[in-house]
Design the sequence.
């Protein structure tokens, strides 16, 4: 694949597109369309936007992703977490006019699209790796809780907006006497029905002999049933007259193409700048979510997706969303799984689903007039509560305290302060903890195991040592953050054992030595020299040696470079009697004991 | 040493203090005092403060460091780089009243002292390691240039203040017709004389038979001669009447003890908050400078210093400086070397120097009235230009492009924007470059070398491989930033070679596997399983194995864990014919070729 055509995966699969694939893609598209309509409406509401914006975000982006994307199963569109982040980002602007909110959401999609596209062209998909698994897990769980709480107002028929659980709970508590009973009569049964569908419907259907596939599909279409039934109820009982909040008038017809935030004469630069930080976070989180889903589904078919090209696909999809009056989109988990299960063969399935939603936008909107917001809220609550998984706290506690800290900070930051602060805190914490870990490398004094050529830690093994020789192994590449640790270690050991005349650094675990570490090694060499001790290296890896040679390091250290550590010991301890070390197990931590 | 007494190193050396040590310390103190007086005055001027503040900062801090510090040779007081940073920090506040500037500088010292003290108590000296050598080198060189330019105004007798070379050069250029010739007649000869002393005096003295030590001392006392001569000239020729800027009236007597920024009724919280960021940077940079000097000098005597206790010593010294009307201090390079060369035996030498400066403050200040600022500026320029070393750019370019980038960013940021931005940019760049490097680990497919038990990269060596087996080695610990790289690598290789039934990951270079990497390994295991390929590990290190066992990882992967890679190959390739790989040297970068 050439560089240019690699930017258009459609050129590869489109050339061999068959009628069998067309049938598969068409069928998958019908199922996804039906599922996507209520979901799109609901998530737009979650983002603090009119419901129909969700439909707009589910048309052009899907077509564009089909051109640029590499996953055959990924279904792009509005998703829960990104909608929550959109709500937080545009909520922070202090806008009250709904039209301005719509423009801001479209600007956010445009910015996010540009960021993703640029990252894709610069092949910076690796950046997404810095969202560690604990951060993502903590963030998704906390977001699920915040989203569910934020939708409670629609079920209760009160006004309580907020971006963290403290705001939400206190506002809901303040409104406890103002709950609107007709709304609750719609919302609670809808919620109960949806929970029952998740938990009870599938076993029931299976028991009466319905196939696994069909039973799974029925569960996924539950929200559609709720939507239809509650629309009919509301219309027949005139519940809107009694104050039940409904979706209301949706502009009929397809969205026009515009550059958001662009008035006739001036471009709203300030708005774009204000939203840049949020757009960056939304881009990264959306990309991580989308790529994980795409990779999981691709592996099942033994296919590959290309993360850098996915950045381009998602970037183009968001720009398309922005231009067609939508808001930030990404590849969603639940709908991609539906798409995959329904047999989507190529990215064309997404484009066909877009046609379905366009038709719905053209002809179904009058029917959606009576849709109660409470039933949309119920579908969201049921969907997001399945994301909540507090067991990650326990699992990370068992596995590693550093990972636990990252989960805890992300989780509590997101719950108590907000999504953006939460995820930022988590990323900073996980990077800092990693850096601090590498800044304190495991350094061991080693001795010879029996008569073998193996050398092990003197603190844990009965090994042979020599009074005139200090053999040291560092279990980490040497770079600026840990360069001084070795200096401190050697200084401390030499100050204690005055008989030492040679220090040999066993470099078998050193994959890299940076300029700061070189300075530190030169300082060590000089210090040791002034103490009348020579400094040697052993088992230096090829690429590290190349680099040391570039600055002629090896010619000006006081000692030599030995191929193996055994060679060093043989050369430096001739005539010196050896003795056996006494392991001090009690001083060693269990972690390092095995090394 | 107990925990409590370890906080007071004076209790250790004070107990055995001898009259011989007293003589040594006393002599060193006299020499340091004489050298410290002009330096203190000059650096205070550089910090944008009245000259006598430099004297205040050289009394109590020295006494306090003698109690808490661990280095016998370190001389604490005002230094060039910290003075420049102080000028930038208090210059940003927009204060015009000199009294307010003095208070702000004292607050900065107080904050910096508290930060250092807290870091010391929490044993966070390791933080200083994140100032990599390239960042420090670039910063010091750029600071030297900025400082020299900032002092040019005193030599030229014009008004041109600024915090980067663009501001300074444009202001100096704008003032080019307003230069004050009488000032230049003082400044230029002083500058020329000082440069000559540095370059020409020592060889001359050595040639006429003066000892190395005495010749070196004479060079270091050059500034004192300049100060005395220019004071006499200015007084006799009444140059102050002709507009030559002089130090003027210095309050006679010792500074009183006060908490700065504390009015009778309200504490100036805002000022403390505004200065917190600057204080943090000053603390870290001051600590790094001081510890490097102290470690270098301690090594010469085969002594040790304790970085965490140094934090406490410097913290206490800065708090003392703050309370006694001074400004931020740290251990300076030039004066510590003088102290060491003059034979200082214990930290008491510093306390004795403090007595000398206190006496000077009491009795010498009337004599300093006529001291021209131009000659102080000349001493600064000569001192800081010796810090400028642009060769670090070339050296780091040769050694590593990542290190070069960090130097270049720090250097240009400091020169063109300012000290705080410069050093922050450098730290962020060096950490990011390191993380990006580890995020793209070296991963190799390996094969058996001849009939040995060694396995090497198939791209560079003629090694034995088997069609049903993919042997992979990762040269880095697995953590969140690189976990996905292995997943991508394996997916790509398996998609290409359909005959593979087993993947063995050789873990000899893996020192750590974090929670994200575990998730990734589990995903790999599942993906491979769905492709009908088993996933095995070999040569897992003890501590890594312990951790994997905590979550029973090894029991639910599809393959086994082998003690050595050879064992894995023997077990998995029975009856499968092997063939020899063809190395593809041209595709391999020279860096990885040797692995």
Sequence:
């Amino acid at each position: 694949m050439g560089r240019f055509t690699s930017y258009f995966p459609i050129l590869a699969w489109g050339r061999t597109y068959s009628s069998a694939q067309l049938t598969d893609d068409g069928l998958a598209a019908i199922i996804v369309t039906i599922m996507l309509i209520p979901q799109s409406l609901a998530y737009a509401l979650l983002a603090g936007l009119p419901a129909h914006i969700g439909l707009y975000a589910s048309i052009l982006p899907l077509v564009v992703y089909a051109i640029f994307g590499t996953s055959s199963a990924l279904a792009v569109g509005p998703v829960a977490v990104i909608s929550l982040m959109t709500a937080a980002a545009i909520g922070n602007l202090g806008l009250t006019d709904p039209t301005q909110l719509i423009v801001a959401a479209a600007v956010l999609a445009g910015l996010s699209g540009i960021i993703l596209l640029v990252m894709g062209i610069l092949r910076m998909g690796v950046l997404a790796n810095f969202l560690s698994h604990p951060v993502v897990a903590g963030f998704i769980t906390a977001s699920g809780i915040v989203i569910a709480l934020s939708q409670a107002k629609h079920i209760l028929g009160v006004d309580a907006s907020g971006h963290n659980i403290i705001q939400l709970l206190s506002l809901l508590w303040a409104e406890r006497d103002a709950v609107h009973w007709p709304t609750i009569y719609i919302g609670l049964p809808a919620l109960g029905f949806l929970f029952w569908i998740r938990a009870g419907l599938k076993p029931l259907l299976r028991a009466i002999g319905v196939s696994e596939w069909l039973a799974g599909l029925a569960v996924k279409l539950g929200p559609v049933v709720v939507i239809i039934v509650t629309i009919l109820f509301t219309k027949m009982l005139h519940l809107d007259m009694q104050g039940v909040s409904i979706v209301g008038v949706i502009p009929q017809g397809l969205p026009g193409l515009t550059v958001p935030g662009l008035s006739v004469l001036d471009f709203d630069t300030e708005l774009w700048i204000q939203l840049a930080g949020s757009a960056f976070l939304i881009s990264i989180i959306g990309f991580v979510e989308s790529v994980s889903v795409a990779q999981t589904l691709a592996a099942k078919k033994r296919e590959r997706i290309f993360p850098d090209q996915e950045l381009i696909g998602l970037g183009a999809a968001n720009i398309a969303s922005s231009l067609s009056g939508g808001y930030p989109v990404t590849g969603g988990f639940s709908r991609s799984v539906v798409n995959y299960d329904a047999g989507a063969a190529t990215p064309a399935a997404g484009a066909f689903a877009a046609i379905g939603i366009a038709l719905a936008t053209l002809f179904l909107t009058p029917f959606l007039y009576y849709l109660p917001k409470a039933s949309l809220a119920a579908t969201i609550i049921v969907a997001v509560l399945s994301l909540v998984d507090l067991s990650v706290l326990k699992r990370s506690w068992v596995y590693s305290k550093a990972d636990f800290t990252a989960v805890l900070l992300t989780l509590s930051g997101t719950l108590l302060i907000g999504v953006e602060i939460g995820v930022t805190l988590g990323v900073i914490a996980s990077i800092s903890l990693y850096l601090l870990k590498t800044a304190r490398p495991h350094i061991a004094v080693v001795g010879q195991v029996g008569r073998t050529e193996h050398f092990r830690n003197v603190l844990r093994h009965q090994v042979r040592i020599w009074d005139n020789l200090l053999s040291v192994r560092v279990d980490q590449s040497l770079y600026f953050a840990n360069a001084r640790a070795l200096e401190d270690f050697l200084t401390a050991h030499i100050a204690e054992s005055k008989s030492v005349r040679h220090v040999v650094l066993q470099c078998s675990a050193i994959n890299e030595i940076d300029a700061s570490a070189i300075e530190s090694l030169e300082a060590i060499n000089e210090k040791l020299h002034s103490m009348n001790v020579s400094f040697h290296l052993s088992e230096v890896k090829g690429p590290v040696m190349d680099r040391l040679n570039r600055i002629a390091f090896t010619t000006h250290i006081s000692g030599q470079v030995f191929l193996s550590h055994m060679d060093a010991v043989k050369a430096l301890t001739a005539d010196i009697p050896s003795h056996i070390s006494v392991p001090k197990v009690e001083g060693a931590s269990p972690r390092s004991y095995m090394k």
